[in-house]
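Researcher: Here's the sequence for the chain we discussed earlier.
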Amino acid sequence: MCATEFGLIGHPLGHSLSPFIHHGIMGAAGLEGSYRLFDIPAECLAETIRRLSADLAGFNCTIPYKEAIIPFLGGLDETAARIRSVNTVADRKGYNTDFAAFRQACPLHKGSLVLLLGAGGVSRTMAYAAADAGCHLYLVARRPEQADALVAAVRCHYPKAVLQSCATLSEWRIMAGQLAAERGGWIVLNGTPLGMWPDLSGLPLPKDDLVHVQRVYDTIYNPVATRLVLAARSRGIPADGGQGMLFHQALAAQKIWHPDVVFEPVLMRRVQRDLTQAIMKQSPVTILLTGFMGSGKTTVGRLLAKKLDLPFLDLDTSIEKQAGRSIPEIFATEGEAYFRDLERSVLRQSLDRRQSQVMSTGGGALLGDGVDLLRKVYPVLIILLDVSLPVALQRLGRGEGRPMLAGQDGQAWEKLYQQRQPRYHELADLVVDADSCPGQIARAISQHLGLEENQ
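Model: Thanks. This is the structure I predict for it:
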């Protein structure tokens, strides 16, 4: 056995962040060691566990082997035995560090209303945690029979728990409003992959349902803030992604493997901050700023990109560079239809770069058809700089350089504003008040994205 070698088994492992996290934790704690990935097929599971138990000081286990590994171990800790899920192994004993990591990331209280979306592996951990906390738990899953089975399994250990599976979200909605009025708002836990990189378009709970919600926890950590998290934050609802759970389950494993080591909280927080940047680099996301003319998209975009240490691209500038003419000239000689085609072409070219970046767009760039398809093809998050009409008019002055406003009076400007506002809000993943100064707006966006702590 090598006292400094650790690893992760699973299949497929893809671009797992586990080596980055564990090397960061060990380095911050002054521990020498390596952490490797072992992507193994099912038929090799038994032999691999036997070999790694002898060769490594400890290892982690992820899908699809968290339950399949149990027969090949010498014992289980109390949590792993209850949940029937193992993610950490030391001396052939299986542990579950997901449970405590989730409870730390998302505090739950007795009597709280909990809506759990999904019934897979991570949902299993959250279901047990909610029952353990005395919550009233309602499950909705794509496969209702899977939700029923999870409810039955949890009830075996918590016979007095309030548990119910709902066949559909519509069934949950029938009771959601009344129960929220009686007991307070719902805590929504997402255990589905909807919204995970690279398809950021997924939204496991429609935005309108957030009216009944007081807190959101999404186990997805990539992107750092999913559309569900951003939709909640736009409405002032506390919401967190899964990065905290990801980090703390790894830290808990290191504590099992190194019981005599002190892991200084300040140093561990630094490792967790570095993890956010690693996610952004490994899985590129374009932050698209949209909004009415005068909302400050270009100025805010530059500040935000600098704050996040990301490239900045102004779509209008890119269009002018490619066309060799100013946008007013394009409108005057070719017309709006030609400009919109060119705008869409340049937008796609810019997104094809596949890098994390901040991009400001023209006021009409995202209003046409094809945005939903754009979401599915490219990993983008759309941020609305929601400027009020009086502030927009003040900033626009006489509208020089704005082809859509040229020769128009104030009433025409107001009409255009009112026409566009509903579509802006429909498209937006995050809505930010844009009436304040650009620096405050950039900071608000950074905070809502979960990135401000990195500064």
